[in-house]
């Protein structure tokens, strides 16, 4: 059992920082909200144009940033972004997205030569391409440099200013206004 | 959307270090090695050709099957693909199709050459190629179930053949039997059984593979 009596809600425009020690279940909570894991008891509702609770349907509202970056080592960042844009059925603009993420110099370099921070930037760039309402972010600031952290914070702030919701499991301050949810607090 | 996934998987398989060339090379290597072991008895070689080439083709296809879902699982892509508008059943079907196009199809195209090397008569050579064309989609499809089940296991590639090879026995039996029948001057009716087996496997496997993947994503 990871947690019990956990109840919270996030509304449009809200950034929720999920905090807590390692192993307390931050990632599991995010995976539950995404619909990968089923809670042993209780319900998770994602509301968008009416109420949706089916896990399979819920996934279509979710922008996911896991702790793995989804960067295929044989493909270039431009190819990765173009693929996901087409997979998610979004208008593709890989070049400008890469420029915004500060990756224009390595756009045509296979991802295996990218640093951990660059891969995280790529993952953030992909997140903006997908245009989903509910962002679930697992350690969005890990491996990023100072500018990268500012970039991530500005993306989250912009997303929520436009009426989106962001849930971020994190150990560091996000650098933007947010509500805090601390797991493991008695 | 499904096209994007198919295209990406084709590209990954044909890039440097991809699985397509590897499977083809393995198939050719085994088919070259067996006559060296058996000796230059053309009559005997023609008798065993279909069986040897079918087994070599199945093993060559299995070489790359363990990475079918695992590669995407390891780097986090599978989570993102699961959250895409595509159903996991469609995803599985696309991955099976990509795997067949990069292994089953090239193996089929190469098989007449290897059949000739074994001294198979022309008619039997074409039956062999036809049987591989009909049967290899079942290899990719049934293999995908095993790939889905073992995707989160380290070194799952060692367990995968144990799971999948028994399921593939009918394909090997009917595929090789069709060629033997031609050699014996009989009709190639076994091809019909092979086709039935292949259609059933290919249609049903995406559902089983998707269920297996879903199970592992929850783990």
Question: What features would you describe in this structure?
Answer:
Chain A has a single domain, classed as P-loop containing nucleotide triphosphate hydrolases (Rossmann fold, 3-Layer(aba) Sandwich), CATH 3.40.50. Helix content of chain A is 33%, strand content 15%. Chain A is built from six helices and seven strands; from the N terminus they run E-H-E-E-H-E-H-H-H-E-H-E-E. Chain A has helices at residues 26-34, 55-58, 77-87, 94-100, 116-130, 146-161, and strands at residues 15-19, 46-47, 51-52, 62-65, 134-138, 165-169, 179-182. In chain A, the strands form two sheets. Chain A has a five-stranded parallel sheet with strand order 4-5-6-1-7, sandwiched between helices. A two-stranded antiparallel ribbon of chain A has the order 2-3. Chain A is globular. The mean pLDDT of chain A is 86. With 219 residues, chain B is mainly alpha-helical. Chain B has one domain (2-217). Chain B contains nine helices and no strands. In chain B, helix 3 packs parallel to helix 7 and helix 6 packs antiparallel against helix 7. The model of chain B has no long low-confidence stretch (mean pLDDT 92). Chains A and B meet through helix 3 of A and helix 1 and helix 5 of B.
Question: What's the helix and strand layout?
Answer:
The complex is a heterodimer of chains A (186) and B (219).
Chain A: E1 15-19, H1 26-34, E2 46-47, E3 51-52, H2 55-58, E4 62-65, H3 77-87, H4 94-100, H5 116-130, E5 134-138, H6 146-161, E6 165-169, E7 179-182
Helix pairs in contact in A: 3-5, 4-5, 5-6
Chain B: H1 2-14, H2 19-38, H3 42-65, H4 67-74, H5 77-82, H6 88-117, H7 122-149, H8 160-183, H9 190-217
Helix pairs in contact in B: 1-6, 2-3, 2-6, 3-6, 3-7, 3-8, 6-7, 6-9, 7-8, 7-9, 8-9
